[in-house]
Amino acid sequence: MNTQVFTNDEIDVAMELVDQALNDQNQKDYQIYTYKENKKLIGYYCVGPTPLTMGTYDLYWIVVEPNSHKRGIGKMLLKHAEDTVKSQGGRLIIVETSSQPKYKNTRKFYQGNKYEELARIKDYYQIGDDLVIYGKYV
């Protein structure tokens, strides 16, 4: 998917998780949900339980094709992820993102969906690029 936001390295990591989730039926770390229109992939998310926790899940990726933004698809995917986590006994969803300006809309998206900034680690990814951690109790 051409998000126009992620770097090639980020895309490689996302694809590794997708490949593992879809090709290893025994793994329980990652769950993928896709949203398609007319057989075309429009968006997806990847969520999974956080190791060594009870009821905490990580939302690893949520992606919507840029030409489908502002249609509520991201919100629908996020709600689906929250419902999935709840149905599995989850209570908290954690999301990590970057402080870079190109992720401003991503941060606004989470805030607009009642995710709270729980932590910020300065210069985490590189100097001037903080790790921003959001969370929501479901």
Task: Put the structure in a nutshell.
With 138 residues, the protein is α+β, with helices and mostly antiparallel strands.
Helix-strand layout with pairing:
Layout: H1 8-23, E1 31-37, E2 40-49, E3 56-64, H2 73-87, E4 92-98, H3 104-112, E5 116-126, E6 129-137
Parallel strand pairs: 3-4
Antiparallel strand pairs: 1-2, 2-3, 4-6, 5-6
What does this structure look like?
The radius of gyration is 15 Å and the shape is globular. Helix content is 29%, strand content 38%. It has a six-stranded mixed β-sheet, with helices on both faces. The longest helix has 16 residues, at 8-23. The chain has helices spanning 8-23, 73-87, 104-112; strands spanning 31-37, 40-49, 56-64, 92-98, 116-126, 129-137. Strand 2 and strand 3 (56-64) form a beta hairpin. It is an alpha+beta fold and 138 residues long.
Main attributes of the structure:
138 residues, alpha+beta, 6-stranded mixed sheet, 3 helices, 6 strands, 29% helix
Order of strands across the widest beta sheet?
1-2-3-4-6-5
Could you tell me the strand content as a percent range? Answer: 35-45%
Kindly report how far apart the N and C termini lie. Answer: 28 Å
The biggest beta sheet, please?
6 strands, mixed
Count of alpha and pi helical runs: 3
The average pLDDT is: 88
Task: Give me the Rg, rounded.
Answer: 15 Å
Structural class: alpha+beta
Shape: globular
Based on DSSP secondary structure assignment, what is the total number of beta strands? Answer: 6
Helix and strand sequence: HEEEHEHEE
Q: Assign a percent range to the helix content.
A: 25-40%
**Are there runs of 5+ residues with pLDDT below 50, and where?**
none
